[in-house]
Amino acid sequence: MAVKFTKPEINVREKLAELDKPSGIAGEAMLRAETVAEQQALIGVGRRNLIINGDFKVSQRGTYTSTTTLTNTATYYLDRWKFYTFTNTSGTFQHKLDQTLPDGTVTNTHLHTSTSSDMNAPLVQMVEDHKAVWGKYFTVSFWYKSNKETYYNIWNGTSQIHFLVPNSGGAWKKWEQTYKLKENGAYFRLEFYGHTVDMTSGSYLELAQVQIELGKVATPFEHRSYGEELALCERYYQRVPVYHESIIGQCWNTTSARFPVQLPVEMRSDPTITVPGPGTSGYSMKPLTASLSWPGGSGNNAVTTRSPRHFYVTCTGYSGLVAGNASTLYAGSNYIYIKCDAEL
Protein backbone atom coordinates (compact mmCIF):
# COMPACT_ATOMS: atom_id res chain seq x y z
CA MET A 1 0.00 0.00 0.00
CA ALA A 2 1.39 3.35 -1.01
CA VAL A 3 1.65 5.98 1.69
CA LYS A 4 1.42 9.63 0.69
CA PHE A 5 3.07 12.31 2.82
CA THR A 6 2.24 15.96 2.62
CA LYS A 7 4.31 18.89 3.87
CA PRO A 8 2.92 22.31 4.66
CA GLU A 9 4.15 25.16 2.52
CA ILE A 10 6.73 27.46 4.08
CA ASN A 11 6.94 31.18 3.39
CA VAL A 12 10.71 31.63 3.27
CA ARG A 13 10.52 35.43 3.43
CA GLU A 14 8.47 35.32 6.63
CA LYS A 15 10.82 32.79 8.22
CA LEU A 16 13.84 34.94 7.41
CA ALA A 17 12.11 37.96 8.89
CA GLU A 18 11.53 35.99 12.09
CA LEU A 19 15.22 35.28 12.55
CA ASP A 20 16.54 37.23 15.51
CA LYS A 21 19.96 37.88 13.99
CA PRO A 22 20.89 41.56 13.61
CA SER A 23 22.89 42.34 10.50
CA GLY A 24 24.48 45.52 11.85
CA ILE A 25 25.26 48.72 9.95
CA ALA A 26 27.73 47.07 7.57
CA GLY A 27 25.35 44.21 6.83
CA GLU A 28 22.48 46.58 6.15
CA ALA A 29 24.69 48.58 3.82
CA MET A 30 25.67 45.41 1.95
CA LEU A 31 22.03 44.38 1.59
CA ARG A 32 21.09 47.83 0.30
CA ALA A 33 23.87 47.87 -2.31
CA GLU A 34 22.33 47.79 -5.77
CA THR A 35 25.38 46.75 -7.79
CA VAL A 36 28.44 44.56 -7.43
CA ALA A 37 30.58 47.69 -7.71
CA GLU A 38 28.89 49.16 -4.62
CA GLN A 39 29.46 45.91 -2.71
CA GLN A 40 33.12 45.86 -3.75
CA ALA A 41 33.52 49.42 -2.49
CA LEU A 42 32.01 48.43 0.87
CA ILE A 43 34.40 45.53 1.42
CA GLY A 44 37.43 47.53 0.32
CA VAL A 45 38.17 46.07 -3.11
CA GLY A 46 40.50 48.45 -4.92
CA ARG A 47 41.70 51.86 -3.85
CA ARG A 48 39.10 54.10 -2.20
CA ASN A 49 40.61 57.19 -0.63
CA LEU A 50 40.78 60.21 -2.96
CA ILE A 51 42.91 62.01 -0.36
CA ILE A 52 46.66 61.42 -0.53
CA ASN A 53 48.66 61.34 2.71
CA GLY A 54 45.44 61.37 4.73
CA ASP A 55 47.27 59.90 7.72
CA PHE A 56 50.11 62.46 7.49
CA LYS A 57 52.88 59.87 7.23
CA VAL A 58 54.89 61.53 4.42
CA SER A 59 56.83 64.76 5.02
CA GLN A 60 59.48 65.22 2.33
CA ARG A 61 59.91 68.97 2.80
CA GLY A 62 61.10 68.84 6.37
CA THR A 63 60.57 67.73 9.96
CA TYR A 64 57.79 69.60 11.76
CA THR A 65 57.39 67.54 14.92
CA SER A 66 58.08 70.66 16.97
CA THR A 67 55.67 73.61 16.93
CA THR A 68 56.16 75.45 13.64
CA THR A 69 55.07 79.04 12.97
CA LEU A 70 53.04 79.47 9.79
CA THR A 71 54.27 81.93 7.19
CA ASN A 72 52.19 84.63 5.53
CA THR A 73 52.36 82.91 2.15
CA ALA A 74 50.52 79.88 0.80
CA THR A 75 52.89 77.05 1.74
CA TYR A 76 53.10 73.28 1.57
CA TYR A 77 54.50 71.59 4.66
CA LEU A 78 53.40 67.95 4.92
CA ASP A 79 53.04 66.35 1.51
CA ARG A 80 49.88 67.29 -0.44
CA TRP A 81 48.65 69.55 2.40
CA LYS A 82 48.88 73.30 1.92
CA PHE A 83 48.09 76.22 4.21
CA TYR A 84 46.34 79.01 2.35
CA THR A 85 46.65 82.40 4.02
CA PHE A 86 44.12 85.13 3.29
CA THR A 87 44.94 87.43 6.21
CA ASN A 88 47.51 87.46 9.00
CA THR A 89 48.17 83.84 9.84
CA SER A 90 49.05 84.20 13.54
CA GLY A 91 49.13 80.45 13.91
CA THR A 92 51.24 77.35 14.30
CA PHE A 93 51.05 73.70 13.37
CA GLN A 94 52.71 70.50 14.54
CA HIS A 95 53.20 67.08 12.94
CA LYS A 96 52.50 64.68 15.81
CA LEU A 97 53.74 61.12 15.53
CA ASP A 98 52.31 57.85 16.90
CA GLN A 99 49.11 59.19 18.43
CA THR A 100 46.50 56.67 19.63
CA LEU A 101 42.87 57.03 18.53
CA PRO A 102 39.90 55.72 20.56
CA ASP A 103 39.68 52.59 18.39
CA GLY A 104 43.26 51.71 19.30
CA THR A 105 44.78 52.77 15.97
CA VAL A 106 48.22 54.39 16.20
CA THR A 107 48.65 57.11 13.58
CA ASN A 108 50.20 60.49 12.88
CA THR A 109 48.12 63.64 13.32
CA HIS A 110 48.15 67.27 12.20
CA LEU A 111 47.65 69.94 14.90
CA HIS A 112 46.63 73.44 13.76
CA THR A 113 46.60 76.14 16.50
CA SER A 114 45.63 79.82 16.42
CA THR A 115 47.75 82.39 18.22
CA SER A 116 45.28 85.27 17.77
CA SER A 117 41.57 85.88 17.19
CA ASP A 118 41.78 86.75 13.49
CA MET A 119 43.75 83.93 11.88
CA ASN A 120 42.48 82.84 8.47
CA ALA A 121 44.68 79.99 7.26
CA PRO A 122 42.80 76.88 6.10
CA LEU A 123 44.56 73.55 5.62
CA VAL A 124 43.82 72.49 2.04
CA GLN A 125 44.20 69.54 -0.28
CA MET A 126 43.43 69.78 -3.99
CA VAL A 127 42.15 66.47 -5.44
CA GLU A 128 43.52 65.94 -8.93
CA ASP A 129 40.84 63.47 -10.03
CA HIS A 130 38.02 65.95 -9.38
CA LYS A 131 35.79 64.43 -12.08
CA ALA A 132 35.51 61.25 -10.00
CA VAL A 133 32.85 62.95 -7.85
CA TRP A 134 30.80 64.47 -10.69
CA GLY A 135 27.18 63.46 -10.24
CA LYS A 136 28.00 60.99 -7.46
CA TYR A 137 27.57 60.72 -3.74
CA PHE A 138 30.79 60.82 -1.77
CA THR A 139 31.56 60.49 1.93
CA VAL A 140 34.04 62.53 3.96
CA SER A 141 35.35 61.00 7.18
CA PHE A 142 38.08 61.88 9.66
CA TRP A 143 38.99 61.86 13.34
CA TYR A 144 39.27 65.24 14.99
CA LYS A 145 40.01 66.86 18.33
CA SER A 146 39.13 70.50 19.06
CA ASN A 147 38.34 73.02 21.78
CA LYS A 148 36.03 75.16 19.63
CA GLU A 149 33.30 74.62 17.09
CA THR A 150 35.05 74.32 13.76
CA TYR A 151 34.17 73.74 10.13
CA TYR A 152 35.46 72.47 6.82
CA ASN A 153 34.62 73.28 3.20
CA ILE A 154 34.11 71.34 0.03
CA TRP A 155 34.79 73.69 -2.86
CA ASN A 156 34.54 72.78 -6.55
CA GLY A 157 35.30 76.17 -8.10
CA THR A 158 31.61 76.95 -8.63
CA SER A 159 30.22 76.72 -5.13
CA GLN A 160 31.39 75.76 -1.66
CA ILE A 161 29.65 73.94 1.14
CA HIS A 162 30.39 74.63 4.80
CA PHE A 163 30.03 71.81 7.32
CA LEU A 164 29.98 72.81 10.99
CA VAL A 165 31.81 70.38 13.25
CA PRO A 166 30.94 70.51 16.98
CA ASN A 167 33.49 71.29 19.67
CA SER A 168 34.88 67.91 20.75
CA GLY A 169 35.86 69.19 24.18
CA GLY A 170 39.45 68.09 23.74
CA ALA A 171 38.52 64.44 23.05
CA TRP A 172 38.85 62.50 19.82
CA LYS A 173 35.63 62.28 17.81
CA LYS A 174 34.83 60.59 14.49
CA TRP A 175 33.16 62.66 11.76
CA GLU A 176 31.29 61.23 8.77
CA GLN A 177 29.32 63.19 6.16
CA THR A 178 27.81 62.14 2.83
CA TYR A 179 27.18 64.70 0.14
CA LYS A 180 26.46 65.14 -3.57
CA LEU A 181 27.50 68.30 -5.40
CA LYS A 182 24.77 70.19 -7.21
CA GLU A 183 26.96 70.87 -10.22
CA ASN A 184 30.26 69.85 -11.75
CA GLY A 185 33.22 72.11 -11.06
CA ALA A 186 36.67 72.91 -12.37
CA TYR A 187 38.35 71.34 -9.35
CA PHE A 188 37.64 69.65 -6.01
CA ARG A 189 39.16 71.01 -2.84
CA LEU A 190 38.91 70.07 0.83
CA GLU A 191 39.57 72.86 3.34
CA PHE A 192 39.85 72.60 7.13
CA TYR A 193 39.41 75.76 9.18
CA GLY A 194 40.60 75.46 12.77
CA HIS A 195 38.07 77.99 14.03
CA THR A 196 34.69 79.73 13.69
CA VAL A 197 33.62 83.30 14.49
CA ASP A 198 34.29 82.78 18.21
CA MET A 199 37.92 81.80 17.64
CA THR A 200 40.40 82.97 20.25
CA SER A 201 44.12 82.56 20.76
CA GLY A 202 44.66 78.91 21.65
CA SER A 203 41.84 77.57 19.47
CA TYR A 204 42.98 74.36 17.84
CA LEU A 205 41.98 71.56 15.49
CA GLU A 206 43.83 68.25 15.39
CA LEU A 207 43.14 65.87 12.50
CA ALA A 208 43.78 62.20 11.78
CA GLN A 209 42.89 59.72 9.00
CA VAL A 210 41.22 62.06 6.52
CA GLN A 211 39.34 60.17 3.82
CA ILE A 212 37.05 60.98 0.87
CA GLU A 213 35.49 58.04 -0.93
CA LEU A 214 32.68 57.46 -3.40
CA GLY A 215 29.44 56.13 -1.96
CA LYS A 216 27.10 56.83 0.93
CA VAL A 217 28.92 54.84 3.62
CA ALA A 218 32.17 55.69 5.43
CA THR A 219 34.39 52.63 5.35
CA PRO A 220 37.42 52.14 7.63
CA PHE A 221 40.41 54.32 6.78
CA GLU A 222 42.42 52.92 3.88
CA HIS A 223 45.91 52.15 5.17
CA ARG A 224 48.54 52.24 2.46
CA SER A 225 52.17 51.35 3.03
CA TYR A 226 54.68 54.17 3.42
CA GLY A 227 56.29 53.22 0.10
CA GLU A 228 52.99 53.43 -1.78
CA GLU A 229 51.98 56.70 -0.10
CA LEU A 230 55.39 58.19 -0.86
CA ALA A 231 55.09 57.24 -4.53
CA LEU A 232 51.65 58.91 -4.70
CA CYS A 233 53.10 62.06 -3.13
CA GLU A 234 56.06 62.07 -5.49
CA ARG A 235 53.72 62.64 -8.42
CA TYR A 236 53.43 66.18 -7.05
CA TYR A 237 56.72 66.75 -5.22
CA GLN A 238 59.98 64.87 -4.95
CA ARG A 239 63.59 65.42 -3.99
CA VAL A 240 66.65 64.16 -5.85
CA PRO A 241 69.56 63.57 -3.44
CA VAL A 242 73.02 64.90 -4.33
CA TYR A 243 75.68 63.11 -2.34
CA HIS A 244 79.13 61.84 -3.30
CA GLU A 245 79.06 60.21 -6.78
CA SER A 246 75.29 59.86 -6.96
CA ILE A 247 74.80 61.80 -10.24
CA ILE A 248 77.17 61.15 -13.15
CA GLY A 249 77.42 63.28 -16.28
CA GLN A 250 79.85 64.37 -18.97
CA CYS A 251 81.93 67.44 -19.79
CA TRP A 252 81.40 68.74 -23.30
CA ASN A 253 84.21 71.30 -23.06
CA THR A 254 86.68 72.65 -20.49
CA THR A 255 84.11 74.88 -18.78
CA SER A 256 80.80 72.99 -18.91
CA ALA A 257 79.23 69.65 -17.96
CA ARG A 258 75.74 68.21 -18.18
CA PHE A 259 74.08 65.69 -15.85
CA PRO A 260 70.95 63.66 -16.78
CA VAL A 261 68.50 62.89 -13.96
CA GLN A 262 65.78 60.25 -14.31
CA LEU A 263 62.94 60.67 -11.80
CA PRO A 264 61.73 57.46 -10.08
CA VAL A 265 58.06 58.55 -10.31
CA GLU A 266 56.51 60.38 -13.26
CA MET A 267 55.26 63.75 -12.06
CA ARG A 268 51.87 65.32 -12.76
CA SER A 269 53.35 67.89 -15.16
CA ASP A 270 56.70 69.47 -16.04
CA PRO A 271 57.99 70.31 -12.55
CA THR A 272 59.42 73.55 -11.28
CA ILE A 273 62.93 72.55 -10.26
CA THR A 274 65.10 74.24 -7.62
CA VAL A 275 68.79 73.51 -8.13
CA PRO A 276 71.49 74.34 -5.55
CA GLY A 277 73.85 77.07 -6.68
CA PRO A 278 77.61 76.69 -7.20
CA GLY A 279 79.77 76.28 -4.11
CA THR A 280 81.70 73.87 -1.92
CA SER A 281 79.78 74.22 1.34
CA GLY A 282 76.22 74.48 2.60
CA TYR A 283 73.32 74.11 0.16
CA SER A 284 75.52 74.15 -2.97
CA MET A 285 77.14 71.84 -5.49
CA LYS A 286 79.75 71.71 -8.26
CA PRO A 287 80.85 69.30 -10.96
CA LEU A 288 84.14 67.56 -10.19
CA THR A 289 87.21 67.37 -12.40
CA ALA A 290 88.71 64.10 -13.64
CA SER A 291 90.84 63.95 -10.49
CA LEU A 292 87.70 64.36 -8.35
CA SER A 293 88.70 67.89 -7.35
CA TRP A 294 86.67 71.09 -7.20
CA PRO A 295 86.89 73.02 -10.50
CA GLY A 296 87.83 76.68 -10.73
CA GLY A 297 85.61 79.53 -11.88
CA SER A 298 82.51 81.08 -10.34
CA GLY A 299 80.20 78.72 -12.23
CA ASN A 300 76.46 78.50 -12.78
CA ASN A 301 74.04 75.59 -12.24
CA ALA A 302 70.76 75.48 -14.15
CA VAL A 303 68.06 73.06 -15.32
CA THR A 304 67.64 72.41 -19.04
CA THR A 305 65.27 70.14 -20.99
CA ARG A 306 62.78 69.07 -18.33
CA SER A 307 59.80 66.70 -18.53
CA PRO A 308 57.60 64.91 -15.96
CA ARG A 309 60.08 62.04 -15.96
CA HIS A 310 63.54 63.55 -16.40
CA PHE A 311 65.66 66.70 -16.61
CA TYR A 312 69.23 67.85 -17.12
CA VAL A 313 71.39 69.85 -14.74
CA THR A 314 73.75 71.97 -16.83
CA CYS A 315 76.83 73.46 -15.16
CA THR A 316 78.65 76.24 -17.01
CA GLY A 317 81.32 78.85 -16.27
CA TYR A 318 83.81 76.52 -14.54
CA SER A 319 87.46 75.81 -15.37
CA GLY A 320 89.67 72.76 -15.20
CA LEU A 321 87.21 70.33 -16.84
CA VAL A 322 88.25 68.07 -19.75
CA ALA A 323 86.00 67.76 -22.79
CA GLY A 324 84.64 64.22 -23.17
CA ASN A 325 85.51 63.17 -19.61
CA ALA A 326 82.95 61.95 -17.13
CA SER A 327 82.14 64.21 -14.19
CA THR A 328 80.34 63.85 -10.91
CA LEU A 329 77.85 66.34 -9.47
CA TYR A 330 79.03 66.73 -5.91
CA ALA A 331 77.35 68.28 -2.87
CA GLY A 332 78.90 71.12 -0.94
CA SER A 333 77.77 69.55 2.34
CA ASN A 334 77.00 65.98 3.36
CA TYR A 335 73.55 65.73 1.79
CA ILE A 336 71.49 68.18 -0.26
CA TYR A 337 68.53 67.87 -2.61
CA ILE A 338 67.33 69.06 -5.99
CA LYS A 339 63.64 69.89 -5.41
CA CYS A 340 60.99 69.12 -8.03
CA ASP A 341 57.49 70.63 -7.61
CA ALA A 342 54.39 69.83 -9.72
CA GLU A 343 51.70 70.60 -7.13
CA LEU A 344 48.19 71.59 -8.22
Characterization of the model:
This protein is mainly β and 344 residues long. It is 9% helix and 37% strand. It contains four helices and 22 strands. The chain has helices at residues 12-18, 24-32, 36-42, 226-234, and strands spanning 68-69, 75-76, 82-83, 91-100, 106-114, 123-127, 137-146, 150-155, 160-165, 173-180, 188-193, 204-214, 237-242, 247-251, 257-262, 272-274, 277-278, 284-287, 300-304, 310-316, 326-331, 336-341. It has a seven-stranded mixed sheet with strand order 17-18-21-14-15-20-19, with no helix packed on it. It has a six-stranded antiparallel sheet with strand order 1-4-5-12-7-10, with no helix packed on it. Strands 2-3-6-11-8-9 form a six-stranded antiparallel sheet, with no helix packed on it. Strand 8 and strand 9 (160-165) form a beta hairpin. The longest helix has 9 residues, at 24-32. It is elongated. The termini are far apart.
Radius of gyration using CA atoms only: 27 Å
Give a count of the beta strands, DSSP E runs of length 2 or more.
22
Task: Name the strands of the widest sheet in spatial order.
Answer: 17-18-21-14-15-20-19
Assembly classification = single chain
Q: Assign the structural class, choosing from mainly alpha, mainly beta, alpha/beta, alpha+beta, or little secondary structure.
A: mainly beta
Mean pLDDT: 88
Low-confidence stretches: none
Query: How far from one another are the termini?
Result: 87 Å
> What characterizes the major β-sheet?
7 strands, mixed
What's the overall geometry? elongated
Helix residue percentage: under 10%
Sequence of secondary-structure elements: HHHEEEEEEEEEEEEHEEEEEEEEEE
Content of β-strand = 35-45%
Query: Number of helix segments?
Result: 4
